[in-house]
Amino acid sequence: MVSKQKIILQDPTAEKIWTEQEQNITLRGKSKSKWLCYNMAMRARIFDDWANTMLLQNPESLVLHIGCGLDSRCRRISQNYHAWYDCDFPDVIEARKNYYEENDSYHMTVLNAADPEQIKSLPQSETAIIVFEGVSMYLTNDELHNFFSALEQKYGHLHVLMDVYTVFGAKASKFKNPINDVGVTNVYGIDDIDGLLAGLKTHCIKEHLLTPENLVNELPPRDRRIFKMLFTGKLYRKIYRLFELEK
């Protein structure tokens, strides 16, 4: 929807996938919300811009997009990359192969972020850029800690961008959340990012806004006013946050 309006981010691959799969998808409840579309598009754009910045600063890095789904970030970003790996469950990777082809710099691989042993099989690199979008809330705090511990053992330097529910946000997500439409029953929140990373070399260096003004201003004026009321107040930050981590 957002791509077709030519605001926030342009994603012709998403438009193609939607056109081909629309008859197989039933949207219910909040899944049909244009406000959620705007919000998720902004999140995607923030991750895109961050990935571009990280690649500009670390051109030889390995990029790991954890929980990639059918996302086309590997095509949307403008920076060239040396090695990009889109990672997800086996059935998701099989679905991706209908729309993406591997080459010398782009690869798809099966990965369960809750299994630290699988991290060991990832490609080696001195520096890894970890795109961790829309995944942390499906892992317990212990699983997340173990995930970052395994990454630390594998890579000398890490750059991570990760969105999280707060504990309150995780509890609130049981009501009117589109993930409920696909059978998700348990999600987890983080109130203390430093506590989550205790004992690790990885630490939080910055918190990012999920609704930056420059992207909010791309919305149609009438929608912009309502969106600001829904997503830019203090309550939203009590539900959902975005952290940049580094080792």
Topology:
Elements: H1 2-5, H2 12-21, H3 34-57, E1 62-66, H4 73-76, E2 83-88, H5 90-96, E3 106-110, H6 116-119, E4 127-132, H7 141-154, E5 157-165, H8 167-172, H9 193-196, E6 203-208, H10 213-216, H11 221-231, H12 234-237, E7 240-246
Parallel strand pairs: 1-2, 1-4, 2-3, 4-5
Antiparallel strand pairs: 5-7, 6-7
Task: Describe what this molecule looks like in 3D.
The protein has helices at residues 2-5, 12-21, 34-57, 73-76, 90-96, 116-119, 141-154, 167-172, 193-196, 213-216, 221-231, 234-237; strands at 62-66, 83-88, 106-110, 127-132, 157-165, 203-208, 240-246. A 7-stranded mixed beta sheet has the order 3-2-1-4-5-7-6. It has 247 residues and is α/β, with parallel strands linked by helices. Helix 7 links the parallel strand 4 (127-132) and strand 5 (157-165). The radius of gyration is 18 Å and the shape is globular.
Distance between the termini: 37 Å
Q: How much helicity do the residues have?
A: 25-40%
What low-confidence regions span 5 or more consecutive residues with pLDDT below 50?
none
Estimate the strand proportion.
Answer: 15-25%
Biggest sheet overview: 7 strands, mixed
Mind telling me the CATH superfamily name?
A: Vaccinia Virus protein VP39
Gyration radius over CA: 18 Å
Secondary-structure element order, N to C: HHHEHEHEHEHEHHEHHHE
Could you please say which CATH topology applies here? Rossmann fold
How many domains? The number is 1
What is the CATH class designation?
Alpha Beta
At CATH's second level, what is the architecture?
3-Layer(aba) Sandwich
| Structural class by SSE content | alpha/beta
Mean pLDDT, nearest integer? 91
By DSSP, the count of extended strands is: 7
